[in-house]
Each structure stands twice: as structure tokens, then as C-alpha cells.
Amino acid sequence: MDRLVKRMKLHRVTGTIVHHCALMIKYLEREGVKARIVKGWCVYGQEVCTHYWVKDERENVYDIGYELGCLYNSELMAYTPRLCEIEPVGLVFADANELALKLEHERQYDLFNEDRAAFWRESPADIRSFSV
Fold first, then answer.
1. pLDDT at 20
2. Terminal CA-CA length for the chain
3. What's 32's DSSP letter?
């Protein structure tokens, strides 16, 4: 994953966290490993936000969004995020005001799971052409 993330930064790959997870899946599938995008929450301290990551058939977790984020903002390395598939209660939702972005991520996530060809067709050109 480290190599993929560094190449993504080097080539200034655009897209969203769902696109980045899709590239990770593409990489894993090329290696013969089945994987899926997981929609859940990332908990850090007393805050939580909607998050997406990749989990393979052996239950290995690839949090490509966090890894890529750390390359762009080294302050993120100070956090120890915890990924949850069940919505946590009693915490502050840091992304509560980002409804449009959350809805777009949800749409992309659903499209990836329902029609991968359509997902790739509507992805930004640099995502479509990025070779894993």
C-alpha cells in the first residue's frame, strides 16, 4: 500500500476517498486478492467522521485515505484513528456540516458496488488512467 500511496501523491491523483479505495481494490485484485470498500466511521479522540477503507478477504484493513492524508499533512500521524463499521454514539461528528460531500461519497460508493463500469466511466481522467 505504501508504494501505491506514494505514487498517487507523486502523480497528484485527484478524486475522492472512494476513488482512492477503488484504486486500492484494483491493485489488490491484480495481485489475486478479493477486497471490498467498507463504509463506516473513523474515530479519533472524541470526534468521529464518515470514512471509507478497504478490507480484503482475509480481513486485512487498508486505510488508504488515512495513509494518503498523512503524506499531505504530517500532523495526522499524531492521531491513532479507530475504524468502526457500527456508528458510534456520544461523540462529536466532525463532518456533520458536510452533507453534500457525504452524499457524493455515498453515491460513488453505491455506484462502485452496483456498476463498476459506470463508476470508472464517470471517474476523473487521472483516476481512470492511473496504472496500479
1. 95
2. 11
3. T
